[in-house]
Amino acid sequence: MPQLDVVTFVNQYVWIIGSVSVVVIIMLSVILPSIKKLTQIRGVTEEEIIESKEERDFTSFKKLISL
Fold it and tell me: Where are the transmembrane segments (predicted)?
């Protein structure tokens, strides 16, 4: 039945195009905002440098380990 082969081909084609489009749209909506954040220039002040050198408490990490 050649008609069935054409219908199956068109059906698979529509499903593939639809699913790939959905995946691309979701990936772009997730990845593009994070790329935009990474490309923005951040001003580093002297206070931030000093804060980064201070020791951190890591309370949330300690809570996670203690579970």
Answer: 12-32
Structure tokens at 62: 């300690």
**pTM value?**
0.47
Round to whole Å and give the CA distance between 33 and 53.
29
Tell me the C-alpha distance between 9 and 17, whole Å. 12
> How many angstroms separate the CA atoms of 13 and 18, rounded?
8
Distance CA 45, CA 37 (A): 19
pLDDT tens profile 19-54: 999 999 998 888 888 877 777 666 656 666 666 566
Look at residue 42 and give its three-state secondary structure. Answer: coil
